[in-house]
Amino acid sequence: FSRTLEIVNANLHGISLAGDVESPIELVSHSTVNSPVLRGVRGRGTLDSPSATLSSDTLLLLEGSGWFASSYSGGQAAISFKASENWSSTARGSRIEVYTTPIGATAQVLGATLTDAGQLGIGIASPITGLHHAKDEYVASLILTQLGETTANPAGYIGRKSRGTVASPSI
Fold first, then answer.
1. Which one-letter DSSP state was computed for residue 126?
2. Contacts of 117 (CB under 8 A, 6+ apart)
3. Bridge pairing between strands 16-18 and 6-8
4. pTM here?
5. Whether 144 contacts 133, CB under 8 Å
6. CA–CA separation, 94 vs 114, rounded Å?
7. 63-81: per-residue pLDDT in tens?
8. 18: three-class secondary structure by DSSP
């Protein structure tokens, strides 16, 4: 590679890697056992006296932003790894949240949550079943397609329509 990488710490908020060419960050491992790891480590307290991670603390945030009119935007798309409970030597529940910014908007909204129990919520922060999709619109919000010619194992689903909103449904 004949690329130049400049390490900048002008904003005093961390380390920025800057360059005028595509500058991927690569983690390389040559091993039959270990693979490259990108790890976020979160604790409370101080470096000299750390204390336990608490529920909803962000463990790692991967965030994307871009340039507009006169400056860089804040994060417009993100994957956030979070603690789901106060951590201890016997409990370390976690979840993953995905955020996007709708077209014509400037603020991130929660798009999906994968809980500590493996439940996937699309458009909802706290899914109550394996796949929970919620949307405040009068359009089809879930399409199930079964491929193949067998009818022995048909697709199963529960459909429910209610008035109100995702946050406050009513019958």
1. S
2. none
3. antiparallel
4. 0.73
5. no
6. 9
7. 998 889 888 888 899 999 9
8. strand
